[in-house]
Amino acid sequence: MEKEGLLINEALRLGAQYTSRGKTASYIGELSKKDPSHLGLALCTLDGQIAAAGYSEEKFTMQSISKVVTLIAALEQNGQEKIFSRVGMEPTGDAFNSMVRLDLLAGSRPFNPMINAGAIAVADCIQGGTVDERIELCLDFARRLTNNPGLCIDRAVLASEKATGYKNRAIVNLLESNGVVDGKPEEILELYFSMCSVSVDCRDLAFLAAVLAGGGRNPLTGEQLVKPQIVRLVRSLMTTCGMYDYSGQFASTVGIPSKSGVGGGIISAAAGKCGIAVYGPALDEHGNSVGGLKMLEYLSEKMDLNMF
Ligand code: GLU
Q1: Would you say the pTM of this structure is higher than 0.90?
Q2: pLDDT at residue number 225
């Protein structure tokens, strides 16, 4: 791990030069309280060793990275056919919270599960008792994927999301009127917002990324946590749709299946190689961590992680 340790420290030094170019997300009030100069990262090997640097233990919320977790849980429960009858697999080129295409044609379904509309449709597919039980089920799944049994929801961020989630409320109502979802809109959103508000650090997310990089196995125990065909599918959606309307450019500059969140985190799963998580709450105009992007560009090049 000595080489990885040196590289991630160099990546951090480089990334730190860019944090002043971004801003924290402000549309969810709690997120704007983070210090935009903070930056951290962690790398997890396929045998579970972790190297970390910077603010790698600072807690932040998963936000859109949770779309990956909920999608995997929904696919494991329902199979691909049901999920992809409700949501497509195509990139949009639109903002993550756009709903314009949903209203173009009667009965339109979301383009993919990595945008808000798609993730909200996927949240409706989670089965298992009351809404609180369904949230607990997804949270438990996140705990297993991150190897952190202590993972919990940041209640202040959740309250903040709920207070300002007008756009997501509009989306769930449009999905309901298009016949894409059939649960109660408020319950679907409760699950969606709760998963966005799961509190993590870079080590948690590097482990999750390593599970995806290693075909669904727990890097420490070898336990198969996710079916390999689901992992492949999710990695492909991360590649085409995981970085908002920057996914195409990211594929050419970094070339690792990744998912970003407005909390400032990005997970990158380099298949057969390693999992990486970066964190920096200063975001660019697309909603991606500015320092995080620079660190990933550097590591991709130096560690030969670009799959193209
Ligand atoms: N909770 C955020 C929202 O729904 C997630 C956005 C993101 O990270 O892309 O707006």
Answers
A1: yes
A2: 98
